[in-house]
């Protein structure tokens, strides 16, 4: 699995895709956090990074599928998938290596944003006047969100040989899991609305963004990742049917 991880990660770094993804993410978040007056921290007057944590999931919704769309679709189109699957590797090792490479690159995009936290920390009045617990929870939520989106993207890529179709399926799947249940809950009432919203990512992400690291939220994220990766394994095994 580590060999696959290294191969895939190096392939990303040797292609313009990784740099485009990182560049788009950092430029978009930088403009909204520091430049645009309607969302700028400098004009908002409060020492927090809520703009970043509200915007990042929507950017990830498009950028992570752009990273994952080539993982299996390209192998199928090039005819190298059979060669890969005949190597002394299990399906789990192949999926795990490709998944971790995509996730690692997505997490790498978050590292430069730590400079935003440091800047707001220093600019606070008094210095350090920022809710660090909520910030840590929000970063954890973004990392887990990236893990779910990467798993869904890997599954979409395993279902088709066309990268564009894999991208579109992944975007729709990520959108439905992130926002679809919230939209459905908004038309319901009472306990049914609450339980419906809990099926989506947004409710658990909001809890983590408040600095409340609950085991139920962690179990939810890990469960969604596990289900998506198991479905990917099933999609690969379907070649034998």
UniProtKB/TrEMBL annotation:
Main location: membrane
InterPro entries: ABC-2_transporter_component (IPR051449), ABC2_memb-like (IPR025699), Motility-assoc_ABC_perm_GldF (IPR019860)
Keyword match Cell membrane: yes
Domain of life: Bacteria
Assigned keywords, A-Z: Cell membrane, Membrane, Transmembrane, Transmembrane helix
Transmembrane spans: 12-35, 55-73, 94-118, 138-157, 164-181, 218-236
Membrane topology according to the record: Multi-pass membrane protein
Any Pfam family the entry gives: ABC2_membrane_5
Protein name, entry field: ABC-2 type transport system permease protein
Source species of the chain: Hymenobacter artigasi
């Amino acid at each position: 699995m580590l060999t696959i991880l290294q191969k895939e990660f190096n392939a990303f770094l040797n292609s313009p895709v990784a740099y485009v993804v990182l560049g788009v993410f950092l430029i978009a978040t930088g403009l909204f956090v520091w430049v645009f007056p309607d969302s700028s921290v400098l004009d908002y007057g409060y020492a927090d990074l809520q703009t970043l944590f509200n915007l990042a999931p929507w950017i990830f919704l498009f950028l992570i599928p752009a990273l994952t769309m080539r993982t299996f679709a390209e192998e199928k189109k090039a005819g190298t998938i059979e060669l890969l699957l005949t190597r002394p590797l299990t399906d789990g090792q192949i999926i795990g290596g490709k998944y971790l490479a995509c996730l690692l690159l997505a997490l790498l995009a978050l590292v430069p944003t730590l400079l935003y936290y440091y800047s707001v920390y220093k600019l606070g009045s008094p210095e350090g006047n920022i809710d660090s617990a909520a910030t840590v929870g929000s970063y954890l939520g973004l990392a887990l969100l990236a893990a779910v989106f990467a798993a869904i993207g890997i599954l979409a890529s395993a279902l088709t040989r066309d990268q564009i179709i894999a991208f579109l399926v992944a975007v729709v799947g990520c959108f439905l899991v992130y926002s679809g249940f919230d939209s459905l809950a908004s038309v319901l009432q009472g306990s049914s609305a609450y339980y419906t919203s809990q099926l989506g990512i947004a409710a658990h992400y909001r809890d983590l963004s408040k600095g409340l690291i609950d085991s139920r939220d962690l179990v939810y994220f890990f469960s969604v990742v596990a289900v998506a990766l198991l479905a990917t394994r099933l999609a690969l095994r379907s070649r034998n049917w």
